[in-house]
């Protein structure tokens, strides 16, 4: 029968000194903070790219008008919010017609969201549904091209 164990003489890797634990904690907090900063910077870059695409497309299409670049930033933010919160609901509700039209109805949803953004932002005007549809296609193409340049 053993009265004592030899486990107390075996070095354990999971026991850390106070200084190594605090150093590891500061490293983890710095990594976490850098991830947050990278995500915020990515959001700002995405908003700037979207606003440039909105401004360029409004300049290109005669049926769409915008007064200034700060208005384009506001339109990009409003479009992003509408895409994040309203579009999933509209896609869910229109799922059967989206299936029947092989996904082309999603272009109609995009055009409706752009028309809603034109009602919400006073300095952004879209003349008709067809201009909104063309605007959504061109903005998607332009922002996609610009994001590829930023990523490389």
Structure description:
With 152 residues, the protein is mainly α. It has one domain (18-151). The chain contains six helices and two strands; from the N terminus they run αβααααβα. The protein has a two-stranded antiparallel ribbon. Helix 1 (18-60) packs across helix 2 (69-85) and helix 2 (69-85) crosses helix 5 (105-120). Mean pLDDT is 86; it is low at 1-10.
Give the SSE string.
Answer: HEHHHHEH
User: Distance between termini?
Assistant: 69 Å
Largest sheet: 2 strands, antiparallel
DSSP helical segment count: 6
Strand content: under 5%
Number of domains: 1
Structural class: mainly alpha
Strand order of the largest sheet: 1-2
Helix content: over 70%
What's the overall geometry? globular
Low-pLDDT residue spans: 1-10
Average of the residue pLDDT scores: 86
Radius of gyration: 26 Å
Count all strands and give the number: 2
């Amino acid at each position: 029968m053993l009265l004592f164990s030899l486990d107390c003489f075996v070095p354990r890797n999971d026991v850390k000194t106070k200084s190594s634990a605090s150093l590891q904690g500061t490293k983890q907090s710095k990594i976490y903070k850098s991830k947050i900063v990278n995500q915020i910077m990515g959001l700002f870059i995405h908003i700037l790219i979207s606003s440039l695409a909105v401004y360029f497309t409004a300049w290109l299409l005669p049926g769409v008008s915008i007064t200034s670049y700060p208005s384009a930033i506001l339109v990009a933010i409003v479009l992003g919010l509408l895409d994040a919160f309203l579009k999933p609901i509209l896609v869910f509700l229109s799922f059967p017609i989206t299936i029947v039209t092989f996904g082309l109805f999603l272009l109609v949803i995009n055009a409706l969201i752009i028309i809603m953004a034109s009602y919400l932002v006073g300095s952004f005007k879209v003349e008709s549904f067809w201009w909104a549809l063309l605007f959504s296609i061109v903005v998607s193409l332009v922002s996609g091209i610009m994001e590829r340049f930023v990523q490389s």
